[in-house]
Amino acid sequence: MTSTDLVPATGAQAVQTVARTEGRQFLTFRIAEEEYGLDILRVQEIRSYEAPTRVANAPAFVKGVVNLRGVIVPILDLRIRLGQAGEYNAFTVVIVLNVAGRVVGVVVDSVSDVLELGADEIKPRPEVPAAMDSRFITGLGKIGDRMLILLDIEAMIKSPDFGLVD
């Protein structure tokens, strides 16, 4: 042990030390063959899929609404929104999110687990051709040989593409 080991870090050194040791937690879920993650702090609850009440003239990815303890919650099929076909089975779930001051449910194929990723396990979003929309990808999580696509679910829900927030 050296004498510098006993001296507390200050300023930028302290911030870097905290950033390296603190992880972020992500709820992981699957859509088709891909595994995604979203900030666990946005998740209100996870529910089994039940057919919502359809809304007239809604886009195909808006499955309808459900009454969740007195709150009318729009249900969006994230699989359809991301260009994947999805069948409804026993593993299909709705992740109820609290984003942009609203409660919204998103349908996914299945929920895997909650993972804590350190800063060194999160890689920046890849540079991709302009034809591919990556604006809602915040980065890639790497856990062993698993690759996790990290979504900015709040930006996605707030986007005009979803039409939920003014």
From TrEMBL:
Report if keyword Cytoplasm is assigned: yes
**Which keywords does this chain's UniProt record carry?**
Cytoplasm
InterPro entries given for it?
A: CheW, CheW-like_dom_sf, CheW-lke_dom
Q: Which organism is it from?
A: Pelomonas nitida
Q: Name one Pfam family in it.
A: CheW
Q: List the protein's name.
A: Chemotaxis protein CheW
Location in the cell? Cytoplasm
Q: Where is the signal peptide?
A: none
Q: What is the lineage of its organism?
A: Bacteria, Pseudomonadati, Pseudomonadota, Betaproteobacteria, Burkholderiales
* Residue intervals of the CheW-like domain: 23-162
- PROSITE patterns per record: CHEW
